[in-house]
Design a protein that fits this description.
about 70 residues; mainly alpha; Helix Hairpins; 3 helices; elongated
Length: about 70
């Protein structure tokens, strides 16, 4: 997902997407261990997406509450 698309989402939506992505990541890792994963690069992409979403949430947290 593109960063601009993620920035348009609310915090609740981002948290839901993070949860969904982590579940999907777990499924992909299980498939990889059994050898039935077709695109191993999908794991890398999904990890990057989760990191992007967490970064956006953290940026919002710091901009709203200050750096305490």
């Amino acid at each position: 997902m593109k960063i601009n698309e993620l920035r348009k989402l609310t915090n609740e939506d981002l948290n839901k997407k993070i949860t969904e992505s982590k579940k999907e990541l777990l499924d992909l890792r299980i498939k990889q261990s059994t050898g039935s994963l077709e695109k191993p690069s999908k794991i890398h992409e999904l990890r990057k997406d989760v990191a992007r979403m967490k970064t956006i949430l953290r940026e919002r947290e710091l901009s709203e509450g200050g750096e305490n």
